Amino acid sequence: VKYILAGGKYADFFIEGALTNGFNKKRLYKFKSHTDAAGIIRKIYKEDYMVVLKASRGEHLEEVITKLKG
């Protein structure tokens, strides 16, 4: 895992856990909207990267993919 993007009501806990376990702070991002998440992915993405989106259905992360396509 090269980067972690966290959003939603548990984002702070997720980021805190990553930091506690030695994850590089410069590779952690917190997003507030699908547009923010898409912008971060565009900024950090390299051609050989794999992006995995994981959240509960209520977060509607498919909207991030819609924004990336548009």
List the helices and strands and how they pair.
Elements: E1 4-7, H1 11-20, E2 28-31, H2 34-44, H3 62-69
Parallel strand pairs: 1-2
Description:
- The chain is an alpha+beta fold.
- Helix content is 41%, strand content 11%.
- The protein is built from three helices and two strands; from the N terminus they run βαβαα.
- It has helices at residues 11-20, 34-44, 62-69; strands at residues 4-7, 28-31.
- It has a two-stranded parallel sheet.
- Strand 1, helix 1 (11-20) and strand 2 (28-31) form a beta-alpha-beta unit.
- The longest helix is centred in the middle third of the chain and has 11 residues, at 34-44.
- The model has no long low-confidence stretch (mean pLDDT 93).
Low-confidence stretches: none
Radius of gyration: 12 Å
Total strand count, please? Answer: 2
Strand proportion: 5-15%
Helix- and strand-based class?
alpha+beta
Sketch the topology as an H/E string, one letter per element: EHEHH
Q: Which word captures the global form? A: globular
Largest sheet: 2 strands, parallel
Mean pLDDT: 93
Residue share in helix: 40-55%
The CA-CA distance between the termini, in Å, is 26 Å
DSSP helix count? 3
Give the strand line-up of the largest sheet. Answer: 1-2
Briefly, what is this?
The chain has 70 residues and is an alpha+beta fold. The chain has helices at 11-20, 34-44, 62-69; strands spanning 4-7, 28-31. It starts with a strand and ends with a helix.
Key terms:
single chain; 70 residues; alpha+beta; two-stranded parallel ribbon; 3 helices; 2 strands; 11% strand; globular
